[in-house]
Amino acid sequence: MISTPQEQIINPRFVRLDASTICQLKCPSCPTATGATGKKLGVGYLKFEDFKKFIRHNPQVAHIELSNWGEVFLNKDLKKILAYAYRHNVCLYIANGTNLNYLPDDVAEALVKYKLRRMMCSIDGASQETYVQYRIKGNFDQVVENIKKINRWKAKYKSPYPQLKWQLVAFGHNEHEIYKAKEMAHSLGMSFFLKLSWADLYGLPDFSPVKNRELVGKETGLGVASRKDYLSKYGNDYVEHTCCWDLWIAPQINYDGRMLGCPINYWGDYGNVLEGGLSKIVNGEKMRYARGMLTGKREAKEGIPCTTCTVYQRIKKEQTWVTDQDVRNTYHSGRRYIMFENKILGEEGTKRLADFISGGRRIFWQARTAIKQRRFDLRRLTEIFSPEDPRALPNQGYPLSIPLSSEEEKWKPYFLFHGLTKGVEDLSCHVSVLVPGHSPHPPHAHKEEEILMMLSGEADLLLPLYNGPEGQGRIRLKPGEFVFYPSGYLHTLQTASESPANYLMFRWHARNSEPDTHGQLAFGKHKIYDSLSTNEGKQGFHTATLFEGPTKWLSRLQCHSSVLSPGASYAAHTDPYDVAIIVLEGEVETLKRRFGPHSVIFHPAGKRHGFSNPGKIAAKYVVFEFQN
Ligand code: SF4
């Protein structure tokens, strides 16, 4: 259920603490270069003493992003900050961006030695002539030299940190160098990100608009070449609307301790965390009020920075308020975990240890309860010492009544289950209601694979990368149809029917992935009723395969439709893989219950279950097998 998140107590483990508001470049679209931020935030850098105080007084903070308005490497205390954070098991990032024109060798070594996790290098061109048109006063060759400098230290320490990314903002004057920049990034061991220009966010003139819109649309993977086009195509701000989530999950703080809430706001603050304390400020009346505004529960008010923000105006106009869904699932590890990662076991080893400890903890608490209750029978002891994880999914079934109620939300998800199985690390299932014309989110891509099945109503899937038999970028999904989204596939949906769309979603990933190969299942749309028609009217039990094949996370994903005639059944058994079943017509009986149309049934690998048709008409259902 979507709750109202504005009154939650916030105790963030991740914060953004700007290391510097000073910058040596004069990029035309940047409020730092125009002097706008300096007037409000001051022009300065995070002092080592303030950083120490912040780390000492806020022991829950374990992750800090250092970059926002200025150039991080102009902070004269940066080396000491890196060393102190490492000593106190706090993980640092420069993931928002650095121009990297200036990097002393000892600081380059400190980045590697003290395990800065990630760094985004803002390089808007692949030659000095192009680069300097936007990064005014910048030196392209020096930036490349500084990247090589970091790589030399990485080789010396045999360390993967910091992971480097090349970000190129797409302009008319640099679009011809996109491929060259990509190649250079690859040869420097960096990943690559093409970003849309953002000048209009601060009301600045649109600098060097993109000319080859097709190329930029294709290379960003979005099918659009500007933020404006993005808004009209997807109905939401390009990146900025997620900045509001930082008021819950990663609050932005100015170098002098003033709480700004998000990385976009520079015109107002919520108090000083170095004076008032982080917890007191983030849970204070002013910030709670701002969160209330962003969730649509409170009116705009003078003195709250969001009131004058263009992002808030947009959210208000489109009624795309922040929901509980947006700001949940934001777990960040604590300092003890980082100590193990940085100094003892490395990333993978620490993850394995954490899994082991959570298993041990479960055994301890269950054994303690058994002793208290004086229950020592064999079944109980087997339960306690069985290696099954408490998150392991059991056999389960959910009768659904379609259409679902939207409870006056534009998008209302109902979670059915979420956990792990023998072969799948994280598997969840939800059904959602989406009102006409609405999208749950802009197109996004994630590591998980998904199956989306339409139960009632119709929706357009917005797929910036799709160019197939049904057209380009958009396909219609009707009841009885479903799609498979491979890992990393860009997607969203928008209700196209006059009634709300009701749809079902399975989402999963496993611990070990397969490298991408041509044999893996690609995005595909499937019609269940076409396959069911092959077994229409037959007696007994019959199946027809819709598709099967390996995926990034599964050795095989198999889907088939089944018809079970009245009175027919198959005996109780266990499968070596997870099975999800959606009833389409008739009734089935399993787990000592009857399930009608739209019911969702899940049998994890190794769990015994039988199946029969207790009704008077043929039971028709679709089955997904998650094999690993
Ligand atoms: S509305 Fe603007 S100022 Fe407020 S949190 Fe969102 S982006 Fe920041």
Structure in words:
With 628 residues, the chain is α+β, with helices and mostly antiparallel strands. It is 28% helix and 25% strand. Strands 6-5-4-3-2-1-7-8 form an eight-stranded mixed β-sheet. The mean pLDDT is 88. The structure holds iron/sulfur cluster. Iron/sulfur cluster is lined by residues 240, 243-244, 247, 261-262, 264-265, 305-306, 309, 311-312.
Write the layout of secondary structure elements.
Blueprint: E1 14-17, H1 31-34, H2 36-41, H3 48-57, E2 63-65, H4 78-87, E3 91-98, H5 105-113, E4 118-122, H6 128-134, H7 140-157, E5 163-169, H8 178-187, E6 191-195, H9 213-220, H10 227-234, H11 246-249, E7 252-253, E8 259-261, H12 273-276, H13 278-282, H14 285-294, H15 310-318, H16 324-327, H17 335-344, H18 346-372, H19 378-385, E9 396-398, E10 411-419, E11 426-434, E12 449-456, E13 459-468, E14 471-477, E15 481-485, E16 492-495, E17 501-509, E18 524-527, H20 528-532, E19 541-549, E20 556-564, E21 569-573, E22 578-585, E23 588-590, E24 593-595, E25 600-603, E26 609-612, E27 619-627
Parallel strand pairs: 1-2, 1-7, 2-3, 3-4, 4-5, 5-6
Antiparallel strand pairs: 7-8, 9-25, 10-11, 11-17, 12-15, 12-17, 13-14, 13-16, 15-18, 19-20, 20-27, 21-26, 22-25, 22-27, 23-24
The structure holds iron/sulfur cluster.
